[in-house]
Amino acid sequence: MSNLEVRAWYTTLEEIHHDGGDRVDEPLLKVAVTAVIKNPYAGRYSEDLSALLEPSGELAVELVDRCKAALGGVQAESCGKGAIIGLDGEQEHGVACLTTPFGDAMRNGIGGTGWVTSATKMGTAGTVIDVPLAYKKALFVREFYDAITVSIPTGPRADEIAVIAALGTRGRVHHRVGGLAKSEAVGDGLR
Description:
Elements: E1 6-16, E2 28-38, H1 50-53, H2 56-70, E3 78-85, H3 91-97, H4 100-110, E4 117-122, E5 128-135, E6 146-151, E7 160-168
Parallel strand pairs: 3-4
Antiparallel strand pairs: 1-2, 2-7, 3-5, 3-7, 5-6
Helix pairs in contact: 2-4
């Protein structure tokens, strides 16, 4: 990540043992790690966004490693990514941080094969974003449809981007609305 200037790291962790029903033996852990980085394109338009695209895979490796450490050795089963772009930037700057190099690194880091869900938005310090989560091997496995809420009290500043990787350890604790089951997934990235 020698080409990215990281000002701060933040970790959000949720541990869910029940959600109205009986307590489950295996709680759902959801973690999001955020790197608040300097936006090299803040305040100016550029057709070339390679200063964010090229190092994004390396950033994803670090974010995923930090997520896995926060999970304490429990295997990740779902993933998602997100970005909040400071107001001197553009939404496209956040998207540039999350494209193929980032997604490939995230999948490689957790043994995934599916499409990695994402969300991006413009904002200021304290802006809230819900980072969507989906099963790491097949997007349409409904029990994994979830999100983790992230808010960084000190960022992003106007010339920064908050880049987020999120992981979950299982599907929702009381999922019961049908759909494709994890055991039925064929591993094509969708089904």
